[in-house]
Every structure is written in C-alpha cells, then in structure tokens.
Amino acid sequence: MTDADAGTPALHPETRAIRAGRADNDTALAPILWATTTFVTPTVEEGRRMATGVGAARFYSRYGNPTVAGFEDAIAQLEGAETARAFASGMGAISAVVLGLCSTGDHIVAQRQIYAGTQMLLQTVCPRFGIDVTFVDATEPGAFAAAVIPGKTTLVIAETPANPRLDIVDLDEIGAIAGPMTVVDSTFATPLIQRPLDHGVDLVVHSATKAIAGHNDATLGVVAGEAELVNWLYSFAVLQGANASPFDAMNGLRGLRTLGVRLERQSANAGAVARFLEGRPEVGEVRWPGLESHPQHELASRQMALPGGLLTFDLVGGLEAGRTFVEALEIAQLATSLGGPETLVTHPASTTHVNLTPGELEASGIGPGTIRVSIGLEHPDDLVADVAQALARIGA
Ligand SMILES: *Cc1c(COP(=O)(O)O)cnc(C)c1O
C-alpha cells in the first residue's frame, strides 16, 4: 500500500478514513475522477505484464482504474487487510466470492437470516452449479463449526449485524473455524464499527452502496482480506465484469471522509428512537444492538464500537398496522436501502416479502408487523415526534 498513513498505526480509524486512498492524487485534495476506459500502454512488455498480472490500475478499466484503486486502498487500510477489490455492487462482491471461490461438489455453510440477495444466490444459483449449501442459526453458539464437513466445506458465510432482526454473529467464533475460507458481510457495521479480519476471518465484504458511500448516490461493493485470496478472486472478477465504476468509487471515497461522524449521529438517533419505541403499547419487540434487551447485547458491546443506525421492531397490530404506520410517517420515507442521511423505513411483509407464506416469513425473521428502520442524520426530536404521530394513527 502506498498510503501516507500506512506506517502510522497510532492514528484512529476516523482520522484514517479522512486521509486514506489519496496516494494517487498528485496535489489535488479531493479524489480525482479517472473517467477513462483505457490507458496508453508505454511498452509491449508493460502491456503484457498488465494483461496477465493482478491489479493493473492503468491498463483497461475492467481490470482496474486509479480512482477505484484509491477506494480499494482506503478500504484495505481501514479493514487492516493486505488488499481489496471493488465491485459494481455489494452483490457483485458477494457473487464473486461465492462463484470465484467455489466449484461443483463444494459445500457452503451460511446463516439462515441473511440479506435476501445473498440468500437467493445461495438457494437458486449455487444448486445449478452443484454447490451444496447448509443454512444454520447464527445465534446458536457453535452452529457454523458444527455444520462444516471436513474436506468438503470450502466457504463459511456470515453477516453481522444481520438482516432483518439485527442478529449478531460472534466474530471470534467465525475466525476460529479451521479448514474452509470464512467471509463476513459487515455492511451494517462498516470498518469503523468492527473489523472482522482482526478476529481471524479471511475475507470481509461490504455493500458500500450503504453507509460507506453513505449518500444514496453510489452503487458499490468491496471485498478485502489476504492478498492470496483477493488476487485469486481478481481473475474471476475480471471475467465476471462487475467492476466498480470510477464515479461510484469516487463517491465511496467521499463517503468515507464523514463516515465516523455519521455513524455516531445515526447511533445516537437510533438509540433515541429505540428507547421511545420500547415504551409504547403499539410495539412488540424492538431490536437494536445498543438496547440492553437485545438478546446478544453483551456480544454486540464487545465486538462493535457503536450500535449503528439500523433498528427493527414489530407492530402488534400486524400487517394493517404496518401499512398504516409506514404511510403515516412524514420525515422517515418508505424506501429500501440503508446507511444514508435520510431515515428510511421498510415494511417487508407488505412489500419485498409479500409473496412469502406466513411460515416462510417467520423463517426469515419477519412478522406481519415487522418494520425495519435505517436511521438518518435528522434531529432526534424530529424523528421521535414523527414516529409518535405515525403510531397515533394506527391506535393501540
Ligand atoms: C444491500 C446489501 C447487500 C447488497 O448490496 P448491493 O450494493 O445492493 O448489491 C448485501 N449485504 C447487505 C447486508 C446489504 O445490506
């Protein structure tokens, strides 16, 4: 890594996030947008080296690009990784990990309650390629290791905090699994809240579309970890073609500068809303890692620097209450995605998961009145007041 701060471990992550990924900037303070598909090759020998090697940033932008490389360097530095590879989306990164590392006859252990796109990939695409998947309950201690088949399991996939109920997976436990490669989707946490590689996990993936880019204007993913594994993925990624756009990578670097303060504000705001919800008769369970009532509150406090801005709760009034509630909100907006400045809500049972049976809904951790909230950067009093008026509309 060429970053100026790489040799100064004393800097706090928030400071590093502001300075990382700027090594190729000349004297420009802000990241430079390299909006070019191709680069003039200085010599035939250099062209051959770039075409056949790993990580060329000035050959052809599907292979690499200087703006994208800046973003990759920044993520590698923040995750404490040897290297990173950016993708066109979080799913681009996750599908590259799964299809780039696994072959026919391999076996994957994954957690049951996980991002819906990841679940679909594992349930519908993997079987077509003869890759078996075992789903486990991630909150049950030892469940991942118990499902590993020695000599057959090649990959263990975890997500923490996880969709949709903010379950927490013990990173030490994943890191200690010997044999298969281990990967953690750390999207909800970002590298400023937890660093899975420090716990012995092999690869960390992010949908940088979310809090990292942080402004709902970039679709971006990234994988970071050991150079050997990420470089192995590189040869698949170049053919997969889900490479990050320089513009989105630039917005990823822009987002990193303010990630520290945004996470603090979102965590504080989420705490205010979660505590308000906990006392309300219209509300059943409230899930937020910072609440003492979260079943894994102690684990969350141990491995996460902040509880984060995601919270999930159940309206006792079920489907009808959920629909009325999300439509009655005035500041919080009904939209999928998370980690941005605006507070967003989803009501999975009436939108994204409308075709699931009650049994399937329950297995996914979703009740008829489940609401997921991505808390934004608004004033906490305005958010609490908005939630209060929307609850008043559904009645007790
Ligand atoms: C959004 C999300 C993804 C997928 O990312 P995209 O950028 O939408 O492809 C993967 N994992 C988690 C936890 C997510 O929230």
List the helices and strands and how they pair.
Layout: H1 13-19, H2 44-52, H3 66-79, E1 83-87, H4 90-101, E2 107-111, H5 116-128, E3 132-136, H6 143-147, E4 153-159, H7 171-175, E5 181-185, E6 203-207, E7 221-225, H8 227-240, H9 246-278, E8 283-287, H10 297-303, E9 310-315, H11 318-328, E10 333-334, E11 344-346, H12 358-363, E12 370-374, H13 380-394
Parallel strand pairs: 2-3, 2-4, 4-5, 5-6, 10-11
Antiparallel strand pairs: 1-7, 6-7, 8-9, 9-12, 11-12
Helix pairs in contact: 1-9, 3-9, 4-5, 4-8, 9-13, 11-13
The protein binds pyridoxal-5'-phosphate.
> What percentage of residues falls in helices of 4 or more residues?
25-40%
CATH class of the largest domain: Alpha Beta
Number of domains: 2
CATH superfamily of the largest domain: Type I PLP-dependent aspartate aminotransferase-like (Major domain)
pLDDT averaged residue by residue? 95
Radius of gyration: 21 Å
First and last CA, distance? 57 Å
Number of strands: 12
Largest sheet: 7 strands, mixed
Q: Give me the side-by-side strand order of the main sheet.
A: 1-7-6-5-4-2-3
Question: Element order, helices and strands?
Answer: HHHEHEHEHEHEEEHHEHEHEEHEH
Strand residue percentage: 5-15%
What general outline do the C-alpha atoms trace?
globular
Backbone structural class: alpha/beta
Return the CATH topology of the largest domain: Aspartate Aminotransferase, domain 2
Count up the helices. 13
Q: What is the architecture of the largest domain at the second tier of CATH? A: 3-Layer(aba) Sandwich
